[in-house]
């Protein structure tokens, strides 16, 4: 039996934060996130991993992966009694398709194909380079640029930044009565 390396990554989808289990042995992004370059830095940053896994989660929810078996979704019950409030399965799938489409539009034609291949179809970098006729080790650089653009689309960044100076606020207790009261 193959031992799996499962890690939990926190992802925000439609304003809801949830932990997503990532199989680090399955995902090319997980492999890249574990490896370090000569300078000791990771090949991809945690924010890039989160962006790529968020794209993959939406791709999976949208049901966009090619099917290898029959689609039995059509024969399931459509009775909504006892169902959780919110979107039904087809609405959730449609919303996920829209999110994938917006992410690919934000990534642009330069990066969208590569992001789909690596993040969604789980192709390795060597396979991508071979299919596209790229020189060795170029896919890693292009992928990092694409993941940066994807992270920016999702509103993710390495560090939180606020205004350079916050507005000063003061809270005071009201002084009433004689000496010592109200303190």
Automatic annotation (TrEMBL):
It comes from the Bacteria. Residues 21-155 form the DUF6456 domain. This is DUF6456 domain-containing protein. It comes from Ancylobacter dichloromethanicus.
């Amino acid at each position: 039996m193959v031992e799996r390396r499962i890690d939990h990554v926190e992802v925000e989808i439609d304003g809801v934060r949830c932990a997503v289990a990532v199989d680090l042995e399955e995902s090319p992004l997980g492999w890249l996130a574990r490896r370090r370059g000569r300078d000791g830095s990771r090949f991809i940053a945690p924010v890039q991993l989160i962006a790529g896994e968020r794209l993959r989660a939406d791709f999976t929810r949208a049901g966009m992966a090619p099917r290898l078996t029959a689609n039995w979704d059509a024969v399931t019950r459509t009775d909504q009694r006892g169902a959780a409030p919110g979107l039904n399965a087809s609405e959730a799938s449609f919303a996920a398709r829209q999110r994938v489409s917006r992410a690919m539009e934000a990534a642009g034609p330069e990066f969208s194909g590569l992001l789909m291949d690596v993040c969604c179809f789980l192709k390795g970098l060597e396979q991508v380079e071979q299919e596209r006729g790229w020189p060795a080790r170029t896919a890693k650089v292009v992928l990092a640029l694409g993941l940066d653009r994807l992270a920016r689309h999702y509103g993710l960044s390495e560090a939180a930044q606020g205004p350079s100076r916050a507005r000063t606020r003061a809270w005071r207790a009201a002084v009433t009565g004689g000496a010592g009261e109200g303190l």
